[in-house]
Each structure stands twice: as structure tokens, then as C-alpha cells.
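Allow me, if you will, to draw on your knowledge of protein folds for a short while. The matter concerns a single protein, recorded as an amino acid sequence and a row of C-alpha cells. Could you please explain, in whatever detail you think fit, how the C-alpha cells follow from the sequence? I remain grateful for any guidance, and I place the record below:

…
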Amino acid sequence: MNELINYFTSIPSSHRAGILAGGIALFWILESAFPFFKFHYNKWQHAGINIFFTLTTIIINFVLAFILLRTADYAFTNKWGLLNWLPEMNIWMYTIVGLLLMDFIGAYLAHFTEHKIKVLWRFHLIHHSDTYIDTTSGNRHHPGESVIRFVFTTLGVLIVGCPMWMVFMYQTLSVVATQFTHANICLPKKWDKWMSYILVSPDMHKIHHHYKLPYTDSNYGNIFSIWDRIFGTYLYMEREDVVYGIDTHMDPKENNQLGSLLKIPFQRMRIPEEQ
């Protein structure tokens, strides 16, 4: 564990970029060779839109990174946050507890809030509007949502009291998990089921991208699935019955054109239907 801590304490930006690009490339190849849904779409055009949003997220996180660094430094220097107030534990337990709490505040709570507060949903629905979910869809976030997510991540660092190495570790695991759960692949159903008791599995996240309520408002987890089970937001449906998209924006002229996607948060709200 000490070697991992040392690595993430000073992980080069090139390594972080390599993990992001390498993950997309790996799952792109896998889903091209063994797709679960046989989409009839221009894969490169679709990827271009999603990679644009990925790049804007990277830029926003880079510009605001000093806030995250200052927050982690404050927590470490002042012994602030849950990890500093809990009884002393070994480094493995300390890391697991920290990652769980970061996943709750920085991901689950952020995601849940985006679905429940209308002004935040305006930005998040760009992610849900994708009707061709593949590994590039994982970072399909409007620039406005990237800022919202950054705020929750920073809040998580402060409340949890994460050292910076744990923040980098969490972000790395989060990137890989997101690419995996959005990839157009599937595990054998038994494997997926057992995985979903602890970690977010591909099928579990596919359900979250079903185009109608109540499934859209379920399965908010990012890395760990336990938060959905604890707070009663877990739902199940057969993977074959999933239809991607969001029922308020099923027109390709809106959900598959970059200019239209950037404008959606500033347009009149549309009311989704219950299934």
C-alpha cells in the first residue's frame, strides 16, 4: 500500500492522461469486437461529441485544480474531516473508508442531487440524452455540469479530510469505472449480479440510462453500489429491455448534435413521463 500511496502522491499528469486515453482505447476495441447492442450509428461522429465534452471537463478540472489542492492541504494541516476524527485504523482500512466516503459525497450525492434539483438537472440531462451509450459516453458532461461535479468533489475532500494522494487514487478509479460501466459490453449475468452487490456493474448502470422514469432516477452509484442499496435507490430490469436516452430529448437533432446539446440547459424545461 505504501508504494501505491507514493505513486499517487506524485502521479505525473502524463500518467493520468494515459489512463484516461488508454481506458477509452481498450473498451473501444472490446465493444467494437464484442458489442452488446448493435448500434447503427456513426461511431466516430458520436465519439467526437463525447470527446469534446471530455476535453472541456479536463480543462475545467485543470483550471480549478488549485482549489482542490488547497482544500486537501487544509484538511491535512488542520486534521480536519471524518478520516481525521475517526479512531485510528490501519492504512488499508483508512484507504477503503476514505474511498467509500469520497464516492458517497463526490459521486453518489452529487448524482442524486443533479436528478432532484431542476436547475442542476438541466445540465446533467445532456449526459442522459445519449441514445448510443458506449465507453465515450462516460465523460459526456456539459461544461456546467463539470463545474457542479467539481464543487461536490471539493466538498467531499473537505468533509472526508482526504489527503491528495487519496483524491488522485479516487479519481483514477472513478475514470476506469466510468469507462467500464458505460462500455457497450456485458458480463455474464451471474457475474454481473454478484459484482453489483459491492461495485457498480455494467447492467446496473445500463438501467440508469433507460429513457423513462423511474429507472432514470435510480442506480446513482459510481464505483460502489452499496449507497444505492442503503438508500433504496437501486432498481433492476432485464438488460435486453433497456432503451437509452431521455424521453424529453429523443430527437437526434437535439441529442446528437453538439450545438444543440450545449444549448439545452438554457431552454424551457420539459416534463418527463412516468413509465
Q: What stands out?
A: Residues 41 and 132 are 8 Å apart (CA to CA). The chain is about 60% helix and 0% strand. The chain has a mean pLDDT of 93. Residues 43-77 form the longest helix (35 residues).
